[in-house]
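Standup notes
- HV: blocked on the assembly model, inputs below
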Amino acid sequence: MDNLIRFENVSFSYGTNKVLENIDLTAGEGEFLAVLGYNGSGKSTLAKLINGILVPTSGKVYVDGMDTSDETKLADIRKTAGMVFQNPDNQIVATIVEEDIAFAPENLGLDPSEIRTRVDDAIRAVGLEKHIKDAPHKLSGGQKQRVAIAGVLAMQPRCIILDEPTAMLDPKGRSLVMGVIERLNREKGITIILITHFMEEAALADRIVILSDGKIAENGTPRQVFSDRERMISLGLEVPPVTELTLDLIGNGLPLEKDIIHPEELTEALIKMKEAAV
Amino acid sequence: MRDITLGQYINGDSVIHRLDPRVRLILTLAYIVILFMFNTLLQMVLALVMILLAYALVKIPVKMLLKSLKPIIPIILFTSVLNMFFIKGDVVFSFWKIAVTKQGLYYAAMMSLRVICLLAGSSLLTYTSTPIQLTSALESLFKPLSKLGLPVNDLAMMMTIALRFIPTLLEETDKIMAAQKSRGANLDTGNFIQRAKALTPILIPLFVSAFRRADELALAMECRCYNGGEGRTRLNALKIRRLDYIAVAVFTVCCVLLFMAGRLAV
């Protein structure tokens, strides 16, 4: 995989307060990367460094080979790497769903007919065709967040950075939003960088990066990362609920593998065990 | 609070709804201007007929129009009375030191009709246009001024964002009020000053939150390549169609007829 996003020895500080130190990180084209870390570990700062909202104090960040400290490239960088924030209310600009989704292509100065195509494609990708003429404030949190994702999609980005997109949503909204994110990654090959507090969401990623104290503490597949429960706890995190349950079952003498991270895996293993017992 | 409707827009598909909002705006302004150019009662009555016909086209019930006229009844009465008593001329009847003249009655009727037509005309605009349509109409009409350095696009953007956030902030006000009440704040009793003071613990969190929202929104807009109004295109660009030309033509003919009616009356 080509490296779409590349951090080269990046440090960042607000005044004297060091937030990130010597970060080396890459994300390949089409990769799904989850970023974990306790509050204040520098996750959001990392996200804002990617599309040039913040510029590193030292080191370089490249998006598709473009240096984020080069102001002439900023529009291209933001078009390549779109960003979705936590609070859907604070990123919707217009009073009608379709006009909000059209906001980014309008900024890019595209032709009205091209904007129309992009808006229709984006709204279909998030499954909100029925609400295209609605007022955003009448939608639910999960729907609003999907409008926000569609608003970024309309730029046709190659990478979407999501900064805790499900933190303010109810369970139903959360699973719908995660469904959209997964689909964009699998079907459209869009690189996803998901910053999250939910371990079960991180388990869906190709790779997990854990930040602790401004440094990269772990960088591996979800299975590798979640297999060491003690290490996760020492980093101020936990393992997904299903892994927790599996470990508990193992502790009670059930012969299960330690590296189960998806609910379906546990179901499958238990069914197998039941069949073997019969 | 969630279903708050801004302005008085009535959803519909009448001929007037389908006009370009710019045309609607300009015709309304033109109508208001000619109201002040008419000086015979006959013209005023015809102008009223004209606006009532427009209301018939939109199928807005007369009741609604009457309701919107209600607040200005005192103004109409006041000006009418003044006109009746203070214009000198042929006395119709008099009592004590006050004389009501023929001319006075004539002008009172003129003034009342003018105010009614004014309000009916401007209400028709807000009944048939959403705030967003009005914003984009103004943006488009003031575009030439951007050459003089007036940030027309930015002003329109601000207007749109303000409209977008009114329901959000109303909802938030509700939440803050509930939160403060649950902590024992007394918002509904006391005299005027006490109640005004009680608003402080609502307004301060509301302002703080509004600023935080503004900050986040600015960031999100930047992420979506917003770079001021320069070089922006629009999804739904305003377009003058045949219907708009017809509307302008019909309006012009009506105006000419009304002016001619004024000549006849003299």
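- HV (later): unblocked. Residues 1-5 of chain B have pLDDT under 50 and may be disordered. The radius of gyration of chain B is 25 Å.
- Next: hand off to the docking folks.
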